[in-house]
Amino acid sequence: xxxxxxxxxxxxxxxxxxxxxxxxxx
Amino acid sequence: xxxxxxxxxxxxxxxxxxxxxxxxxxxxxxxxxxxxxxxxxxxxxxxxxxxxxxxxxxxxxxxxxxxxxxxxxxxxxxxxxxxxxxxxxxxxxxxxxxxxxxxxxxxxxxxxxxxxxxxxxxxxxxxxxxxxxxxxxxxxxxxxxxxxxxxxxxxxxxxxxxxxxxxx
Lengths: 26, 168
Hints:
The complex is a heterodimer.
Chain A: E1 2-10, E2 19-25
Chain B: E1 2-5, E2 11-17, E3 20-28, E4 35-41, E5 44-45, E6 50-52, E7 58-65, E8 69-76, E9 85-91, E10 103-107, E11 112-118, E12 121-128, H1 139-145, E13 150-154, E14 159-165
């Protein structure tokens, strides 16, 4: 399968510690 | 569902994605007043879905905002008395395919409700007195009530108050 990689970008860096994952679903 | 952890710098990798049609979303462990500003796969808008064709690596960028719009208001019945209801803010256009683009609140017995972290855009607001959970994700169901929706435009950081008539 393919690899999907990337980045979550936000003006508020404090938010980044709250994220667990990025998910893909059909 | 396939997932990739997000590092504290915001990077993520999801492996083994087989050909098919996908939606992407972010999972978080603390309530965050955020919304997706943009989601692009190899530079192309992917908010309402995208297709993986083969094994080539793909690059995704998700930009989040924390200045979403807010909406509060009152639900009234057809006799202009307050009414409990399930209040649903339904996005317009192709975003209807994306369940996370909807906002749902339960109006209390005196009809008050609040919605926050709304992505800027055009919506319709519905208030059903009695509705099955997630029925509004069914396009056929929504078509029945389309004319009863109250059109609302939400801007970045805007706050608005509305009165909406309940659908019995």
